[in-house]
Amino acid sequence: MKKLFKIIFGILFILFPCATNAQHSKGLLSIGFNHYVDSLLLKLDSTEYKNELGQTYKVGMFKYYICNIRLKKLDGKEFVSKEYFLINEDIEESKKIILNDIPEGTYSTLVFTIGVDSAHNCSGAQSGALDPTNAMFWAWNTGYIFMKLEGKAATSSAPGKIFEYHIGGYKDPNYNIRKIFFPLKENVLIEKNKTAEIKMRVNVSEILKDPTTIDFSKLPSVTDAQNGGIIADNYRDAFSVGK
Amino acid sequence: MNKKGPIILLITLSILLLGFISKLEYSISKKDVALIIPKGFPKPSYDFSNNKLSPEIFTIGRKLFYDPILSKDSSTSCESCHQRVAAFAHIDHALSHGIDNKIGIRNVPALQNMIWKDSYMWDGGVNNLEVQPLNPITSSIEMNETLPNIILKLKKNKEYVSLFKKAYKDTIINSERVLKSLAQFTGLMISADSRYDKYIAGKDTFSFQEKSGLNLFKLKCASCHKEPLFTDNSIRNNGIQPDTSLNDIGRGKITNLEADNYKFKVPSLRNIEMTFPYMHDGRYKKLKDVLNHYSSSASHNKTSDSEINKIGELNDKERKDIISFLLTLTDREFLNDRRFVDPNRK
User: Fold this and answer.
1) Of A92, A98, B132, B333, which has the fewest beta carbons less than 10 angstroms from its beta carbon?
2) Which of residues 134-153 of B touch A (CB under 8 A)?
3) Distance between CA atoms of B181 and B186, rounded to whole angstroms?
4) Is the pLDDT of residue A87 over 50?
C-alpha cells in the first residue's frame, strides 16, 4: 500500500512539476502613491496652495481608483492584475498597494488605468474597493467616480467657496477612463518571495492645469461625465514614477 | 409553584402563537426561485449567473422590499410606492410620495419583467437592475438613507443576521448582498400569464371587440409597445407638453444632449388596468385620456417622436376597442403571486 502511494506521488510529481515550481517563482510588488502639490507633500485641510492663476486653495479630499495594472517584461511578456484599488489620501494604508503572484523577471514598463474600466461600470452590485458604500458611485446615472478632488478656494464662485471635481464617465462621447504608460527608468526586478517596490508621485497641482488651467471662479464644480474630460486629460500627467 | 404556573402557561401559549404566526409567512422553496423564461420572450438582459437564485437570498430580498428599515426614519419601504395590487406601481398617485410627505417629479413605474429591461428609471440612467435601488434609497425625497447606515442597521438586526447567515453560511452583510437579494426578488417579478398570453397560447378566446383592439394595437401602438413585453425598451418623446412646474427634461439630464430633452422610457403596458394614473408624470387618470393624447396630433410638442404622428386620428369605436384589448393585459396570477406577498402580512 505504501509503495503504491509512493508510485502515485512520484507520477504526480513528474506530471506536475511546473505547478509546484511556479508557486515558488513568484514575487510581490508594492506600489506606493505619494501625493504632492508641486514640491510640497499634500496635507488635507491645512496647507494653502496656489494654482496657475495664483488663486489659493486647500484640499479637503483626494481619492481615486487604480485598476488594470500591467507590468511588461523586455521580451513583451505581461503580468496583469485583476484587482481594483481605491487610493485615498485620508487613509494611509490605502496609499500602498501590494500585487501578488508576479512571475519572476525584469520588468521595464508599468501600465495602469485611472478609474474603473467600462465592464465594471456595468456589473451591478460589487464589493471591496468597488462597493458603492465607498461613495465613489453615481446612482442616478450609473457609473463609478474615478477621482474626487474637493476643497475650498477663496475665489470659488460656488456656495461655501468650495470646489469639487468628481470625474467619471465610461461611455462615448464622455469616455473619461485614462490609461497611462510608464517606461521605468530603473527596471523592476521581481524575485521569488521578495517584494519589489515602485513609488509613484502624484502631483495634485497637475490636475488643475495642463492642458486646461482650472479657474475656481469659473469652474468650481464638475460632477458629471460631460465635463469630466478636461480634468481627466489634466490628471493623466499628474502621475510619475519616482519618490 | 402555583404562582409560576400561569406564567409558564402564558409563555408556552406565546411560543405556540408565535409559531403559528410565523407559519403564515409563505415559505419560499427552490421551485419558487426557478427562472422560467415565458414562451416567446427574448433572452433576458439581466443575467442571474452572478447572482445565483436561492430561496434564502430571495427571502432576504422580499423582507427588505417590504421593510421601512431602508429609509432614514423607518417610515418608507419600497412597497410604500410599489404596491403589489398595482403591479408594483403606486395606485392612484400621479407623482411618487417619499419621506416627510415629500413629492417627487415622476410617476412610480410598475415593476414587472425587470430582467428584460436594458436600463432603469424613466430616463434610463441606471444600467443594471442591481444598482437601481440605490436611487430611491439615497434620494432625499424618497427614502433619504445612506447605504453604509443600512448595512449598520441590518448588522444590528437579529432577524437579518440570521437570514444572511442562513443564505451565505457566513456572517458578512454588505451592500453587494443587500442589492443582489433585492435583484432576486424584483428580477423574478415576471408577468406573462394575462388573458392576452393565454389567447396567444391558444388557451383562451377574445371577444370580437378585443380582437379588433389587438389588430388596431398592432397597427398603431406596437412599434413602441412591442409584444410580448409591450415595450421596445427605447427612450422617446411621446409628445406630451412639458409640465413647467416639474421642469423634468428626462433623458436629456443623463446625456446632456438637447435632442434627448423630454424623452422618457417607453413603459410596458402589461397590467395597465392597475397602474393608473398614466404617463411619466401621471397626468392622465384614465386610459381614454391617454388615447385622446395619442390620436390628436395637434397637442403634440415639436420634438415628439415620429412614430407618434403616424398614429393618426382614432374614432370612438377604435379607442374603445383598443382599451378593451389593453384590459386583457391584466395578469391576476402575477398580481396574486404568493411569492411577492408581504411576508409580514397577517
Assistant:
1) A92
2) 134-135, 138, 147-148, 151
3) 9
4) yes
> For chain B, which domains are there?
28-191 (1.10.760.10), 195-330 (1.10.760.10)
Whether residue B127 and residue A142 make contact (CB cut-off 8 A), yes or no, is: yes
Is the four-CA dihedral B159, B165, B171, B172 of positive or negative sign? negative
Q: Is A129 a member of any domain?
A: yes
pLDDT of A2 reads 56
**What residue type is A187 in one-letter code?**
N
Taking each helix axis from N to C end, the angle separating B55-65 and B175-187, rounded to the nearest 10 degrees, works out to 90
| pLDDT, tens only, A149-161 | 999 999 999 999 9
Instruction: Give kind and range of the element (H or E) at residue A37.
Output: strand A26-37
- The alpha-carbon gap from A137 to the nearest alpha carbon of chain B, in Å, equals 10
Give phi and psi for B321, each to the nearest 5.
-65, -45
Per-residue pLDDT, B304: 85
| pLDDT for res B18 | 61
Question: A158 in a domain, yes or no?
Answer: yes
**The pLDDT value given to residue A98:** 97
Within-domain flag for A7: no
The predicted complex's ipTM stands at: 0.86
Task: Flag whether A166 is in a domain.
Answer: yes
Residues 92-121 on A with a CB inside 8 Å of B are 121
Contacts of A175 in chain B (CB under 8 A): none
Entry pTM: 0.89
The whole-number pLDDT of residue B10 equals: 73
Q: How many domains does chain A fold into?
A: 1
Q: Does residue B262 or residue B101 have the better pLDDT?
A: B262
**Lowest-pLDDT range of A2-16, A77-91, A118-132, B176-190:** A2-16
| B7 HSE (CA, 13 A, CB side) | 4
Residue A23 scores a pLDDT above 60: no
Number of neighbouring beta carbons within 10 Å of residue B166 = 14
pLDDT band with cut points at 50, 70 and 90 for residue B94? confident
Q: Which residue segment(s) compose the domain that A212 sits in?
A: 28-66+82-93+113-178+195-241
**Residue A127 backbone dihedrals phi, psi, to 5 degrees:** -120, -170
CB proximity list for B269: less than 8 A, separation 6 or greater: B221, B225, B230, B231, B326, B329
Average pLDDT over residues A65-87: 96
Q: How far is CA B138 from CA A148, B72, B80, in A?
A: 19, 9, 15
Return d(Cα B182, Cα B12) in angstroms, integer: 36
Taking the Cβ of residue A123 and every Cβ of chain B, the question of whether any pair is shorter than 8 Å is answered with: yes
Mean pLDDT of A157-172: 97
Instruction: Report the Cα B116 to chain-centroid distance in Å.
Output: 13
Residue with grid cell 495634485, as numbered in its chain: A204
